[in-house]
Design a protein that fits this description.
This protein is mainly alpha-helical. It is about 60% helix and about 10% strand. A hairpin with a 3-residue loop joins β2 and β3. The relative contact order is 0.16.
């Protein structure tokens, strides 16, 4: 299993929440513990990258989507994808 850093986890959360998701579903999909999920959601909500919508669902904000777009433009992001494909460290 490949270790993920904070950046990877943040991107994973924002992608999964783009269409709206419940906290427990996000926790499961992103493979995070309850305490990790709580920490990441607090940071992302406080920085305006996630928002709470109807019935306690979370959704990526416009600012969060812009963040994802900027990450996809970064050459390091594409390098990381190649690293994952080859399984190298």
């Amino acid at each position: 299993m490949i270790r993920r850093d904070r950046h990877d986890i943040t991107i994973d959360i924002l992608r999964k929440a783009a269409s709206g998701v419940r906290k427990t579903e996000l926790m499961s999909d992103a493979r995070l513990s309850y305490s990790q999920t709580k920490q990441y959601l607090n940071v992302l909500l406080n920085n305006g990258l996630l928002e709470t919508i109807e019935k306690r669902r979370l959704r990526t904000t416009r600012k969060g989507l812009e963040f994802l777009e900027k990450c996809s433009e970064c050459f390091l992001f594409s390098w990381d994808k190649e690293r994952r494909k080859t399984g190298s460290k």
